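Forum: Protein Structure Q&A
Topic: Joint prediction for protein chains with partners

I've read a bunch of threads here and the consensus seems to be that you should model interacting components together rather than docking separate models afterwards. I'd like to see that in practice. Below is the full input, 791 residues plus whatever partners are listed. Could one of the regulars post the assembled result?
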Amino acid sequence: MKQSLRFQQKNLLTIILVLVFLWSLHVIDWKEPLLHPGGGATFLQIIEAIIHPDLSPEILLLALNSAWLTITYAVAGMTIAIVIAVVFGVLASGVLQSSQKPFSSLSKSFFRAILGFLRAIHELVWALLFVAAFGLTPYSAILAIAIPYGGILGRIFADMLSDVNNEPIQSLQSTGASRWQLLFYGYFPLVKANMISYTMYRFECAVRSSAVMSFVGLGGLGYQIQLSLDDLNYEEVWTFVLFLMAIVIVIDGWSSQWRSRLAKRSSRFSLLSFFISFALVVGSWMYLYVVEHASLFTLFTDENGQYAKKFFLSLLGVGEESPAFFSAQSWLPILQLTYDTLMMSIMAIGIATIVMLITVVPAARNVANGKLTMSRSPFHWVSFLLIRSSYILSRAVPELIWAMMIIFIFQPGILPGAVALALHNFGILGKLCAEVIEDLDERPIRHLSSSGASHAQILLYGVLPSVLPKFLSFILYRWEVIMRTTIVVGFVGAGGLGQQFKLSMSYFHYSDITLIIFCYLLLVWLADFLSELSRKIAK
Amino acid sequence: METSQNIIELNDVSVSFDGKIALSSLSLLIKKGERIALIGPSGAGKSTLLNVLSLSNVSGTGNIMIDGQPPSFYRNRKVRAKKIGVIRQQFDLVNALPVIHNVLAGKLADWSLFRSVLSLVIPQEKIMAEQALSRVGLGHKILEQTGSLSGGEQQRVALARLLVQQPEIILADEPVASLDPARAEDVLGILTKLVQEENQTLITSLHSVDYAKKYFTRVIGLREGGMVFDLPVDQLTDRHLKELYKLRETSE
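Posted by a regular:
Agreed with the consensus. Here's the joint model:
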């Protein structure tokens, strides 16, 4: 009885999620034309330009230069993020606190809350705030990357440290080691491999974020993409996008190599990787200091201090007669936008999920080589390669850049935002879910196949039951990420809170900004809470 | 007069977890230099007794004196580390560190934080680590990753750490439980030899009666938290062992 109830619980959750998605579609007025007049033609132009990107020497040189700038900001941002993550991660893990129970758990939750706050706000929002406060210095971009990435890395580091195998630690304790000595001789060596591997994964993400940073007016690949889009020069756009893809693919390959070597402990590659990372860090900071003439200390001048102070005071509504967050008139439209944004995120994850579900089976390596389905054909490899490349394209291009292109095609509203978010996320979802199928235990499926089940029956009885829970947890996890990103696609006019944020920023309505950020944080927390709840139900 | 020779004195010690008795009013005198094997069926209280002796947070009643001092005297981790060393099954080492740092971890109580961090880059007191490792027959493996060693070798690294730590009492909780017979004899042989050379006191829990007879001077049989016998090894007979391990059909 209890068993069947649990079974129903999962199905019920799935049905509810599908209904919620259908409800979100209802927000769009489908009778109005969805595309711009001529949007279809623009779409064809953009697609056509993929085939012949602009490969003239000056554009290539420009792309190379912007790519370096993008990497530099990402590396510098990650350097600070790692410092934040290690310091706060250790404090939040509780390994240094003495065992006096109430104090130690209190300080642990305090530092966890700080990390939670750091990662709640999207890096582009930080960037806009910093540019408003400090001006167009590279540090606006670097700090904007450092803060949320420090929060994410710190949370993961804290989890790794508190999940450490206890036996070696106890044994070290019996040799009379202090808590600090335990940290260096026990905790750090035990989690080193996992820390490096996760940091590398985040570095790849940081490069994408850094490319997007340029949107606020800081140089880099994103800036060039934006300029070329403004000129309607799609050939150039694709050149820069291809550069971005290349960087992401190279880092992805490097980090997966490094990760697999870390597990096998063959140290030469690790040593080399370590030196490359070190050289990148030193090179990036030198470049910032020497070429860009941007020292971290110039940030803390009196003048900047005054600007920043004024900016943050106006965020708090100081000097304003009726700050937005005290007037019901400003609350109502913002709440409406908050609701729209929520719907946008649901629509986005829904579309991404549908595309993923359609493509994921042929995208699994064990389906392509016929091991899982016991049927071989060259057609499988062709579809495998096609789908996998579309996944790479999808996730290599940041949401914001997808949004910039999409708004050329769709009428403004929340649909283009949802489509842009879906475009970036179906590739990520597809890759993660295809890996789930690849890790599937093949024996039960062989058994089904040998007992005469058809392909559809195999899918229904052998594949779906074992992969769906994992799919669901990935989908919910991506939804949390999408929620954080909704505000970003709004910046370029794809609707929701983000669009209003950008407008208020342009009109210097700073107390509106505070209100919007407040509602945005509410949404982020709501998404985290709901997704955690659903994952528990699905378990 | 006699008490001053006893390095460990337990008087009427009882421990219980969640209402289940783990040790019931155990009294025990141990002299310096003795090599004691604790044997008995699973759940007899061997590990609990070792935990009590290692002064880790075990709540119970009764009196414990280590070298004439109460447990509170050893609350300082440095003082405790000089008196008591612990070795368990082979999962005690930090696999991701090279062997030398796992050995030198025995020095952490003596080192400042700065020196211990520096040592991870430039090993301090390297000669001491080399000597300790060659005494356990692993001198050539000093720079290898600990995780790449076999189970028996890892246990010998743990022994080298104890050589560096130099406690007066060594508590070993099933030190050879996860090793095959040849490796187990190897590790126990080295352990007991080193203990004799350093004039340390050794208390080991074991599953094998044969090892207890071969390597130890005194055997204590535990069963359901109580002492069944406590004899010099040459007085141990099959009758005692039968009594210790017989299945009690009346209880449940």
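Chain A has two domains: 56-292, 316-538.
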